[in-house]
Design brief:
The protein is mainly alpha-helical. Helix content is 46%, strand content 9%.
Length: 271
Amino acid sequence: MNVARRTVLLAASALVLPARAEGFDHGHTAWSVLLKKHVRLLDGGRASQLRYAGMATDRAALKAYLASLSAVSAPDFATWPQPRQMAFLINAYNAFTVELVLTRYPKLGSIKELGGFLQSPWQQKFIALLGDKVSLDGIEHEMLRVRGRYDDPRIHFAVNCASIGCPSLREEAYVAERLDAQLDEQARRFMSDRSRNRWSVGAQRLELSKIFDWYGEDFQLGHRGIGSVQAFCASFANELADAPADRERIRSQRVPVSHLAYDWALNEVKP
């Protein structure tokens, strides 16, 4: 066994015992080890790819981490402060998504191929979490997005659907102590990616990811008094446009918005 793989397995093993005995590892150490090893950042972190082949090699470590998540009870989870809960749920979503892809990798080009006629891959209840069997949609829509609980639209830049169109899979686990800064950085990375979000000089409008179409209401009701998608984008005028006049138009919040096509191809590092 090589040194890198032994490090991953030892970190995962160290995590499982505390989850069942002395308390959950809120540093999500085992997941961070896997991400640091297998995530490949592109364009300064504005996008990323995952070495699924490497994750498959380290699947025992991944499964150990997933088991540690599954070992947390709903009553224990309910006692945690909100940042700790959010970090747990975001990491769970991302880690179980990787596990879902590995059930068929490398024989798929998109996570959407794992769904069926009546059920998308996000609706499959394959996740043991908080004493229940849940789906990826259950984590995102019934836990992270439920009204009145967290109300933070930045989660959309943190959960990763294993596709090129998604915001980047972060190269480390989310942790409560740094969650606010991590979510801010994820938002800035995503809004800086002109292939996903940009000001169109020719059309004189914002061209944004479909995420802002699908979840626009989250940005209307959400974090820090944001009142609309345009209001959210105003904070990223410098990332979205180059010309001072265009940046001022974005800051005015009175600009039309269109949405770009979403790329569902797998976000993999090709062998």
